[in-house]
Amino acid sequence: MLMPPFHLAFPVSDLDATRDFYVNDLGCEIGREDVKWIDFNFHGHQISAHLRPEEVAIAHTNSVDGDEVPVRHFGLVLQWDKWEELHTSLEAKGREFLIEPRTRFEGQAGEQGTFFLRDPSGNALEFKSFKNMDQLFARD
Question: CATH 3.10.180.10: does it fit domain 61-140?
Fold first, then answer.
């Protein structure tokens, strides 16, 4: 079954820095844009960065498998090779990870590779992967 694309709108404090990050670091293409917003093709999903610096805030965290994970975040589940390519590319560009690439829930249901980083406005993004995609919604 083909999954429908999602849409997410989020606040940013600087459109130029946002454009640079999402295009040059994450490989997104630009869709429509205006002086106060930019739509990005986020691997087939539509995300819209809206210039609203007063709404940008750092998310609180919850402890998950030994990491302090930002409660408010978004991201993608990538194929394992694409996940490795992305974190290697970000490392080569000197991007700082909020949570370094690692395997979470090792040996348990839902074992996954994951890493977190922030965009230039402080929005938290998670990129994860499963060697076995059937584990995406697995439970113990």
Answer: yes
Long-range contacts: 129-138, Cβ < 8 Å, 24+? 129/77, 129/78, 129/79, 129/80, 129/82, 129/83, 129/84, 130/77, 130/80, 131/80, 133/77, 135/109, 135/110, 135/111, 136/77, 136/110, 138/109, 138/110
| Domain 1-53: assigned CATH number | 3.10.180.10
CATH 3.10.180.10 segments of the chain: 1-53, 61-140
pTM: 0.91
Local confidence pLDDT in tens for the 140 residues of the chain: 578 899 999 999 999 999 999 999 999 999 999 999 999 999 999 999 999 999 999 889 999 888 899 999 999 999 999 999 999 999 999 999 999 999 988 888 888 999 999 999 999 999 999 888 887 887 77
